[in-house]
Amino acid sequence: MSDESNQTEGPIAGISDVPVTLTVSVGRARPTVGELLSLTADDIFTLDKSLDDPVDLYVGDHLVGRGVLEELDEPGSGRLGIRITEIAPIKDLV
């Protein structure tokens, strides 16, 4: 994008085109080692979040924002997206 309004300034100028992996955390489970060792297909772990809770967005181990999951395309397609609801301050990211 060459639009000047999209140019990044400050400490991360010049690296704004570097791709990063965004990890979405939908929740956590805390199984025991015994539970992990006895896993079988179709087992279910209960997460610490519900379907309507926000998800956490990470780059590496840095929390960069939060959002809500949304189904993309037509209902039943199974494709997911994230609507961003919060963004961490840039000073927390560098």
Write the layout of secondary structure elements.
Elements: E1 22-25, H1 33-37, E2 55-59, E3 62-71, E4 80-87
Antiparallel strand pairs: 1-2, 2-3, 3-4
> Over all CA atoms, what is the radius of gyration?
18 Å
Topology-level CATH name:
Surface presentation of antigens (SPOA)
Order of helices and strands: EHEEE
Tally of separate domains? 1
Structure write-up:
This is Flagellar motor switch protein FliN. It is found in: Cell membrane. By secondary structure, the chain is mostly beta strands. It has a single domain (16-92), classed as Surface presentation of antigens (SPOA) (Roll). It is 5% helix and 29% strand. It has one helix and four strands. It has a four-stranded antiparallel β-sheet, with no helix packed on it. A hairpin with an 8-residue loop joins β3 (62-71) and β4. The protein is extended. It starts with 21 loop residues before the first strand and ends in a 7-residue tail after the last strand.
